[in-house]
Design a protein that fits this description.
The protein is mainly alpha-helical. The protein has six helices and two strands; from the N terminus they run H-H-H-H-E-H-H-E. The protein has one domain: Arc Repressor Mutant, subunit A. Helix 4 crosses helix 5. 21% of the residues are buried.
Length: 139
């Protein structure tokens, strides 16, 4: 199991400034900033292939907003992240590039869904104080 770390909003915004949108996880950014990458990273390979294929090969982060909200409504307003991700996988027509992985091994579409969840938390649509691993609609 990987350890969980929490960062404040200022640190998170700085990480976002160094990230490639829709590709990098916070771990990818930290590895790059700390010079922990070995050779050509998988993230770099994804960036290169996304330029060749175009954005139509990937589901954008924003496209996960409605499926996340729909899933949470079906689950009564609160659900485990794994259940929401499973619901999205069963109901959304994912694109071929969505199944690529980031350097940290995260599946690209799942990573984008999690980033969209965070955006919705910051907008007040989802609760920020839910227990770890639980996604919950704001009241």
């Amino acid at each position: 199991m990987m350890p969980t770390i929490r960062v404040d909003d200022e640190v998170f915004k700085e990480l976002q400034m160094h990230a490639t949108p829709f590709v990098d996880t916070p771990n990818d950014v930290l590895r790059r900033l700390l010079s922990l990458e070995k050779g050509k990273s998988q993230t770099t390979a994804i960036r290169s292939s996304s330029r060749r294929r175009g954005s139509d090969s990937y589901t954008s982060q924003k496209e996960f907003r409605k499926p996340i909200l729909d899933a949470l409504v079906r689950f009564g307003g609160r659900a485990r992240m794994a259940d929401v991700i499973g619901d999205i996988k069963a109901r959304v027509a994912l694109k071929p590039g969505d199944f690529e992985t980031t350097q940290s091994g995260a599946v690209l579409w799942e990573n984008r869904a999690q980033w969209e969840r965070l955006a919705m938390v910051k907008e007040g649509l989802l609760r920020a104080d839910s227990p770890h691993g639980i996604w919950q609609l704001a009241n």
